[in-house]
Amino acid sequence: MLLMVVGEAPVTNQFIEKLIKLAPLSDGAVAALAAATDDPQNVDARRDLIREGDKPGPLLVVLDGWACRYKILPNGARQNLAFLMPGDCCDLHVDLLAEMDHGIQTITKCLVAKIERQTIDTILDHHPTIMKALYISQLIDEGTMRAWITSIGRRSSIERVAHLMCELYLRARSIGLGGDQKLVLPLSQIILADALGMTPVHINRVLKQLRIAGAMSITRGSLVIISPQILVQIAGFDENYLHRRLQNAP
Amino acid sequence: MLLMVVGEAPVTNQFIEKLIKLAPLSDGAVAALAAATDDPQNVDARRDLIREGDKPGPLLVVLDGWACRYKILPNGARQNLAFLMPGDCCDLHVDLLAEMDHGIQTITKCLVAKIERQTIDTILDHHPTIMKALYISQLIDEGTMRAWITSIGRRSSIERVAHLMCELYLRARSIGLGGDQKLVLPLSQIILADALGMTPVHINRVLKQLRIAGAMSITRGSLVIISPQILVQIAGFDENYLHRRLQNAP
DNA sequence: CATCAGCAATAACCTATATCAATATTTTAT
DNA sequence: ATAAAATATTGATATAGGTTATTGCTGATG
For chain A, N or C: smaller number of CB within 10 Å? Predict the structure, then answer.
């Protein structure tokens, strides 16, 4: 992560860094975002940031740590819908809807900034490029949901696990988390199971298969990609849905 | 469907009707939309409107007929991602991305309007309420994707089928398709299978179970809901994700 | 530093759904 | 109207992944 320091305070964070990659932001835009996110709060692991049924509140931005979107079924089963990594935020303008159709929960300890709707509206009025960056981010999140539907619907369990790991690795690396073939991945097998529509027991078996296949291994909260080729091949992974090439960068 | 006639030409269509329900539109806004969609084209069934990998083009609006978003896996398997009904359109501003991460295909014959990006941009500049309506529509589509992920990931096959039928019935009724407990549903068991992550054979068996349970039946392209109570109960259906109550209508 | 709660790992067993196959029916094309 | 193609239906069989249960690890807590 690039940290620019002016005077005492760093004027950037993972959120700003992410948006800059999606659309070029002026110094003024960066300053506005920095000001809006300059008082983030620490949140413990496993805390709901917002619950299904809640009225949408301020825009939540995860500056550090991991969180997830999720839904609970009538029978108590859980489905994780997306992972939020540093820099990710909840939907722009959910406040147009009356209530949340899903919850958002921290996985690890998180540093979370809350931007009041009014503040966001003002910022977007003054800086249309921020609007554009946020909009692109939302389109990418939609593409990711489509990839998840496809994975859960049509891939075998080993393909599914491999596919998710490819996704998380690419996303993490693009924000400077972890390096070369390695990544701190604070996701328990239970959390993975709830993301992939499987049981924890079976996730465990599949991880063993992937280890034996020489593709990857997860130990002590760390993902190690042993062979990218093998992993990508098992997953049938095509990164197009992450839209790392954008229209303005052809 | 409400058809208002001024002079000779109807100035509304399913697209406009849908947006009006999401945000109040001025006469000027309606007129602008009507003008932009006044030259729709007939498209045969099973035609790609846009393919994965294509550069996003004009905004596509389905004025009549059914279509679907879909993805094809390396092994040839297909996953349907969403059904488009009359009034639905493809994502606002996908053109910010370099290429489509999925395709859109007609299921039945369709009447499709294409609005050039430049036209849309002009309209949105002049009529912010249209922007708002389209944005809400997109948020609802996202909620629907989350519901699909949850269904495929965590519901049993019979629950999944029942859940999708509840969704389609509500959506269809809200645009004036079909009536009281009945709906023309031009979806083959193969198409349903590809939407629900199942095999056609198993869809067939599940439909039989639902018939026997007295919940619903599909015959000759028509869905008949025999007992809404039973169907909803089997599905564990909660319509909140369709966001029929909006923030401005509390 | 002992206890406890949550995870991970593995085994044995079971079931929901896939697969394969054959036939009937409906829709479309000629 | 007839042939051809696409769907729907049903049965028999296979299997991927679920369920239940046990054990050991690890890190948190008093």
Answer: C
Question: B128-154 and B189-196 are packed helices; what angle lies between their axes, rounded to 10 degrees?
Answer: 90
Distance CA A145 to C1' C24 in A = 40
**Which of A73, A240, A246 is facing B150, going by the closest CB pair?**
A73
Distance between A74 CA and the closest CA of chain B, angstroms? 6
Residue B27: pLDDT above 90?
A: yes
Q: Are B206 and B157 in contact (CB under 8 A)?
A: yes
- For A126-145, what is each residue's pLDDT tens digit? 999 999 999 999 999 999 99
Contact B139 A75 (CB under 8 A): no
CA dihedral angle for residue A137, residue A143, residue A153, residue B153, rounded to 10 degrees:
20
Residue segments in chain A with a per-residue pLDDT below the cut of 70: 1-10, 248-250
**In angstroms, how far is C26 C1' from A68 CA?**
47
pTM of the model: 0.95
* Closest CB from A95, A147, A236 relative to B74: A236
- Burial of residue B42 (CB within 10 Å: 0-12, 13-18, 19+) is exposed
> Of residues 200 to 239 in chain B, which lie within 7 A of strand D by their beta carbon?
200-201, 204-205, 207-208, 219
- Give the angle B121-B122-B124 at the CA atoms, nearest 5°: 65
Give the one of A53, A139, A197 whose C-beta lies nearest to B154's C-beta.
Answer: A197
Cβ neighbours, 10 Å, residue B55: 13
Spatial distance between the Cα atoms of A84 and A92, rounded to a whole number of angstroms: 14
State the pLDDT confidence band at B11, using cuts at 50, 70 and 90. Answer: confident
What is the pLDDT, as a whole number, of residue B179?
A: 83
Q: Tell me the two tokens of residue B173.
A: 């009724």
Helix B14-22 vs helix B128-154: angle between axes, to the nearest 10 degrees? Answer: 90
Task: For tokens 């939020």, name the residue.
Answer: A84
* Structure letter (DSSP) for residue B221: T
